[in-house]
Design goal:
about 200 residues; alpha/beta; 5-stranded mixed β-sheet; two-stranded antiparallel sheet; 7 strands; elongated
Length: about 200
């Protein structure tokens, strides 16, 4: 063994994080060991508190420490428009553009039969209920343009078209790309250039 057991375990746990390979995990672990004990305890406490306190908004399913998230509670936001995204990371990416002023609905993923994810595992039914019960004038589908994203977009479009206008963001994003990695300008242009789903 190259590492002492506790260090090896820390490296192993850090490698479980997305995008963290063995070398990055080793660098992070060694950095953590060099930090003062109070800093390391604060990091550990922040991890535990985030896991315990952050859940999902009961309206839009975005991450929230409250029953209803800050965006849903904001009375200045446009209540007649809902932007549908796959993940909370997409909400954060769109919010950074400062172009969108409506509400959100987070699906919690995309339809992916290969991964065993069907419509019933996502928050699609709750979206249909929101749209059918309220005076929503437009639903913007802002889902990554992958095969699974396209399937999800078409499926949702068919369900909610009877209730409201359905648009999708323009393809300023590359096919197979993720919203969270797009720059603010590209996302802003994609929102401005949205079109009605056919």
């Amino acid at each position: 063994m190259v590492y002492t057991r506790p260090l090896a375990r820390l490296i192993e746990e850090l490698q479980r994080l997305p995008g963290v390979g063995p070398k990055t995990a080793q660098r992070l672990a060694l950095h953590i060991l060099k930090r003062p004990t109070p800093e390391v305890k604060a990091l550990a406490q922040a991890l535990v508190e985030a896991k315990q306190q952050v859940g999902f908004c009961r309206v839009c399913f975005h991450l929230s420490a409250e029953p209803v998230c800050q965006i849903c509670r904001n009375s200045n936001r446009d209540k007649k428009t809902i932007c549908v995204v796959a993940d909370s990371r997409d909400v954060i990416a769109i919010e950074k553009t400062r172009e969108y002023r409506g509400k959100y609905h987070v699906l919690g993923g995309v339809i992916s039969p290969m991964d065993g994810i069907g419509p019933e595992q996502l928050h699609i039914q709750q979206l249909v209920q929101r749209v059918s019960q309220k005076t929503i004038q437009e639903v913007i589908l802002a889902i990554n343009p992958s095969v699974e994203g396209e399937t999800t977009t078409l499926y949702i479009g068919q369900l909610i078209r009877p209730f409201t206008k359905v648009t999708r963001i323009a393809f300023g994003l590359p096919m197979g790309g993720d919203l969270e990695y797009a720059d603010e300008v590209t996302l802003a242009r994609a929102l401005e250039g949205r079109r009605e789903l056919e």
